[in-house]
């Protein structure tokens, strides 16, 4: 069974009356790394939010099906959703500055999901958190555990966010522009880290980006989104080599040549 | 919020600390019993034994100002506490859930806020009667809308930040998200408003008691004393002056503190 199966998802926001997602179909297999690319405003984040159950029913009209492990996220009762998705989906957002609560110690935030979804004792949680922090390459985990977010660099913060998302070993990691706010060297390190986590734990990754070259580093398959629809999908290298859609061609042309041949 | 090298904040802190120290000491000890009359020393001018002189009953004015300042600060503090507590709950829930509840509550809020608070307080006092506790309740209720609005705006802003979204995604319940994550993070925005609210409460209490509709004898308060002192403006100007100075220092201290914390929206 596919991990995620989205069928004809449509999202219309009440506030604007605009349909931001206009019939998206998408499948993510367990352990698959899928890139979702498209220009700003094409509906990538909205699609991911619908998948993660973050779209508030009150603010938008949703239709279609969003199956996560066979359960329809759009219709399933809230409590049930929380029990499947909390431990099943982790999210890494674009802005590491706002992804962590500024008033809570880093270690405590890495543990949070364990506190909510497992019966582990405080010591066991701490152990797991430190382990996760080592895996994401945070220096001196014992020390970092006690720090507050503002005491970390942007790259370290993003690592902490990744640690907090993966500490429970979710089935799917949604990364919404996880590296856009970081400088290039850190960007590459983070992408490598995500790949190693995915391979090691069999975590599927949905990587959202407007940058095809970022997707290419991490994902074996890609879906191209344009104005609320998916216009092209396939194996990343195939799409790169012979884009079928006009918009995809333009996206590829927009990548600086140096990067294109990396 | 940048507090270092901030003259306003430092000055405000010094003045407020001084006033609080005087008030706290005054709660356990004053040079004289504020209400003890002394027939032998009526309307005495400032002297070593009575630094601010005595009133027409021979009561020590310094002791009375200290006690009045304490009473006024307590009333203002209680007023702000009521406004803040209710504002946190109302603003927190409406800001977090939004939707029609938000619309209705905020329109109600606007309706209340459209009237000058003193005027509404007078109406409430006319309905419920005078006295210390009624003042606190009347002013407290009037402070709710402004606090609710500030809290609502800030909660709505924080709600869309990624750390809140990821807490929700991890499956934290609404109350956990609201109380553990969001509310602590709006404190920096609230503090200046609390300070301004306190000031407005001090001034509101002073004006109402001065007009004779607030705190009633034998309870003391700065407004009450200003009312008394007005009868002796010529014979004992130090009475009105020292009472006025106490009000000014209280308000100035908190005003500077709030200024130093980066302004804030007015409450009350
Ligand atoms: N809460 C909302 N209310 C109304 N409209 C919204 C809301 N969130 C997003 N939209 C609209 O939906 C459309 C898709 O937005 P979305 O955030 O999914 O774009 P995106 O592909 O993630 O773009 P970016 O690369 O800039 O992040 C946009 O037109 C946006 O204005
Ligand atoms: Mg986006």
Task: Fill in the keyword field for this structure.
A: 262 residues; alpha/beta; Rossmann fold; 2 domains; six-stranded mixed beta sheet; four-stranded antiparallel beta sheet; 11 helices; 10 strands; 41% helix; B: 268 residues; mainly alpha; MetI-like fold; 71% helix; elongated
Model description:
The complex is a heterodimer of chains A (262) and B (268). Chain A has 262 residues and is an alpha/beta fold. Chain A has two domains: 1-88 and 171-262, Rossmann fold, CATH 3.40.50; 96-169, no CATH class. Chain A is built from eleven helices and ten strands. The longest helix of chain A has 18 residues, at 184-201. Chain A is globular. The two termini of chain A are 35 Å apart. In chain A, 47% of the residues are buried. Chain B starts with 6 loop residues before the first helix and ends in an 8-residue tail after the last helix. In chain B, helix 2 packs across helix 8. Chain B is elongated. At the A-B interface, helix 2, strand 6, helix 3 and helix 6 of A face helix 6 and helix 7 of B. The structure holds adenosine-5'-triphosphate and magnesium ion.
């Amino acid at each position: 069974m596919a991990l995620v199966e989205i069928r004809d998802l449509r999202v219309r926001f009440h506030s604007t009356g605009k349909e931001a997602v206009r019939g998206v179909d998408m499948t993510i297999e367990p352990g698959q790394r899928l890139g979702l690319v498209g220009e700003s405003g094409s509906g990538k984040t909205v699609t991911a939010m619908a998948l993660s159950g973050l779209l508030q029913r009150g603010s938008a009209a949703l239709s279609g099906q969003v199956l996560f492990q066979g359960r329809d996220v759009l219709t399933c009762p809230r409590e049930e959703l929380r029990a499947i998705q909390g431990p099943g989906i982790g999210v890494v957002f674009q802005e590491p500055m706002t992804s962590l609560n500024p008033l809570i110690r880093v270690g405590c935030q890495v543990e949070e999901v364990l506190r909510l979804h497992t019966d582990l004792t405080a010591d066991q949680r701490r152990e797991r958190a430190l382990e996760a922090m080592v895996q994401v390459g945070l220096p001196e985990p014992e020390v970092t555990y006690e720090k507050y977010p503002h005491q970390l660099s942007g790259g370290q913060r993003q690592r902490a966010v990744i640690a907090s998302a993966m500490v429970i070993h979710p089935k799917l990691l949604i990364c919404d522009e996880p590296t856009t706010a970081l400088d290039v060297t850190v960007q590459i390190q983070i992408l490598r880290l995500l790949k190693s986590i995915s391979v090691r734990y069999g975590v599927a990754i949905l990587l959202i980006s407007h940058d095809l070259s970022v997707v290419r580093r991490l994902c074996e398959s890609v879906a191209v989104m344009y104005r609320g629809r998916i216009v092209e999908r396939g194996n990343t290298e195939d799409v790169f080599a012979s884009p079928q859609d006009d918009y995809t061609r333009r996206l590829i042309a927009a990548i600086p040549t140096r990067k294109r041949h990396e | 919020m940048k507090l270092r090298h901030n003259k306003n904040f430092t000055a405000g802190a010094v003045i407020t600390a001084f006033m609080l120290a005087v008030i706290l000491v005054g709660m356990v000890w004053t040079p004289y019993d504020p209400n003890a009359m002394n027939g032998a020393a009526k309307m005495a001018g400032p002297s070593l034994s009575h630094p601010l002189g005595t009133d027409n009953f021979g009561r020590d004015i310094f002791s009375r100002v200290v006690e009045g300042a304490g009473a006024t600060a307590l009333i203002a503090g209680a007023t702000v506490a009521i406004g803040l507590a209710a504002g946190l709950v109302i603003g927190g829930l409406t800001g977090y859930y939004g939707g029609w509840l938000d619309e209705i509550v905020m329109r109600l809020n606007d309706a209340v806020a459209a009237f000058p608070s003193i005027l509404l307080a007078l109406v409430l006092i006319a309905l419920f009667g005078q006295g210390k506790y009624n003042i606190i309740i009347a002013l407290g209720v009037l402070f709710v809308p402004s606090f609710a609005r500030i809290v609502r705006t800030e909660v709505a802003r924080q709600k869309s930040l990624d750390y809140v979204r990821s807490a929700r995604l991890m499956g934290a319940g609404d109350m956990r998200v609201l109380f553990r994550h969001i509310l602590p993070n709006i404190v920096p925005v609230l503090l200046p408003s609390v300070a301004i609210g306190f000031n407005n409460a001090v001034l509101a209490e002073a004006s109402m008691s001065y007009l004779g509709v607030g705190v009633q004898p034998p309870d003391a308060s700065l407004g009450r004393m200003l009312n008394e002192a007005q009868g002796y403006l010529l014979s004992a100007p130090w009475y009105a002056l020292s009472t006025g100075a106490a009000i000014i220092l209280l308000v100035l201290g908190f005003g500077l503190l709030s200024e130093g914390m980066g302004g804030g929206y007015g409450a009350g």
